[in-house]
Every structure is written in structure tokens, then in C-alpha cells.
């Protein structure tokens, strides 16, 4: 395909895969595209190939010549290569070994009750506020922030400040703005680490500070990475999940009638398109063959989980939102060695939200037409700007 295929794709409906992405998928597995900043990349769109490549160690996040690497955007956080090419795999293994214990089944079971209580409190506030309301501001935004603050040991009263820094760091259009946000976020992390070394608590930052061999900078960097990933993406998923259920009232009623479907509802929500227009970025660590195309060392490869999650070869009627769907697992959290370490926590939050929201507000509905619901196009994670509802 020609590099005239330009990202991001035009996605008119936030709940549907972009039409051009669907068209590309129908013509083959791999396609040459042009990123939002004009750089050459390969996009992979088939479920089986994306799943296989997510676990392929010949693809990574680092680059042998980072200054000349293709970029997906201007974000200093994820717009280009990350890590050292020679030590990336060892560094990644170390990071996971440090973080994995905090997302173990035992820790997550202990946290579930607290997440459910926080959700109930927010829904009480929503009921007291009355309709109409913005479900994004009332629930989707505060819950993940509350949860990640408790897990990490970050003061909730700092939420406006660190939220502004994470949003800046995720800016895909303004590199200087993104770099400043990332610098501010890291400096905030260093401040928290200094506090925890003086007054440790029962939280992730304190644990990192007390781990042999973990420097202040490493503790700050890991903590702030968790702060970003631990709330930004879940904010998006809660908002889109609520919108999906409200836009498909028969599915809302099905969940109301059969609460046991909440697990399947969450997985179907997670399968929904994110609308990022690209996918998971990787760089080829060596020359390799993908779908009959030679990809050279250093080439940018975009693994489109949006396309993979809507591949007819893996999902029957992939455009249909069905909370009782069975079959293949979505690839939203990745696959293989880089599978998202925070996936269990995200599932707990989404299950808490939709197991309580639907029975608490059985008559909830959109307060505006679906085509008036807007999404953010300027940040890495995207998501709704607001979600007006009534009941």
C-alpha cells in the first residue's frame, strides 16, 4: 500500500471502527501508512498476526538510532522509541518483576472491596446531584484517580495538578508541551519518593523506596508511569463502556435482568474501538517477514488492536456489541511478555462500575443525541470529553 494512507483515520462514530481501517483490513494483513507526523510505518490489522507479533521478541519499544526513528506523534511519552536498544529486554523484565507483586490476585482481591465502596460513594453523590449530569465528570474521571491514588500512596488532593501533567505528557501534537508535562510529572514523583523515604506507608511508592537496588529516580519513574497508565486509560474505558451500554439499550436491559453478565460486558467494552488510529507501536529489532512483506530493522510497526478486535476471522459479527459474546479474547491489553500488568485492576474497576451503575440507575439514558457526544483527538489516550445523561 502507498504511504498516502494517512493517520489518524477519520472515525465519525466513536463506537465504531474507522471505515478506512476496516477497508484496509479487508485487503490484507500489513499496510504501509504515514503517521500523524508524516513518518513511514507498517500497520498490521489481522487478529492472528497481531496476537503473534505482540509476543514476538523481534519487535520492541527501543530503536538502534532513536533520533532518526519514525514517530507516531509528538508525545514525549509514547510518540517515539523508549529505552536502550541493547538493554531493553532486561530492563523490561526488571520493571515487571518490581511491579507484578502489586497486581497479584491476592492484592487485587483485597482491593476489590475498596473499589466497590468508592464506586458506591460516587453513585450516591450522582444520585444526590440529580439529573441531568455529566457521567464522565461524576464517575469515569474520579474513580480511577481515587483508586490509583490509594494504590500508589499519592495524595488525592493533588489530582488536579497531576492530571494536568499527565494530560500534557500525552499531548500528541505539541512536543514541548508534552516534554514539560513529563518533566513536571517526574519531578512530582521525586517529591513523593522523598516524602515516602521519610514517612513510608502501605503503598507502592513506599515499597519501591524500600526495595534494595531501586534508586530514587527509578522509583519516581515507575511510580509516575503507573500513575499515568493506571488512571488515564481506565477513565477512557469507563466512559466508552457507559456510552456503549446507553447506545444499545437492549444490552443495558440484559445486564439489568442478568447481573451475572457483568464479566462478559466488561470484556465486550474492552474490545470496543479506542479510535487511536494507529495501535500498539513497536520497532523491528531485526529484518523480518510479516505477512509476506519484508520489514527492515528499525522500521516502525503499528499493531492495530482496534482492527484485530474487529476481525471477522476471530469475532462473529464484530461490529455488534454483545455482552454475552463468547469466543476469542480481545487484544486490548496486549498479549505475551508485555501483557498489561495493570489489566486485573482495570477489570476490577470496570466490573465495580457496571455491576452498580445499571441497577442503581435502571432508566438512565443519553441526554443528547449520540452524534453530539465528542471525543478527544489531542491526547494519546483519547476518550470522551463529557457524557451527558439523564434518568
TrEMBL record:
Region (Disordered): 58-86
Protein name: Pentalenolactone synthase
Cofactor dependence: heme
InterPro entries documented for this protein: Cyt_P450, Cyt_P450_B, Cyt_P450_CS, Cyt_P450_sf
CC annotations in GO: cytoplasm
Stated family: Belongs to the cytochrome P450 family.
Keywords, comma-separated and alphabetical: Cytoplasm, Heme, Iron, Metal-binding, Monooxygenase, Oxidoreductase
GO MF annotations, alphabetized: heme binding; iron ion binding; monooxygenase activity; oxidoreductase activity, acting on paired donors, with incorporation or reduction of molecular oxygen
Location within or outside the cell: Cytoplasm
Biased composition annotated in UniProt, kind: Basic and acidic residues: 58-68
Species this chain originates from: Saccharopolyspora spinosa
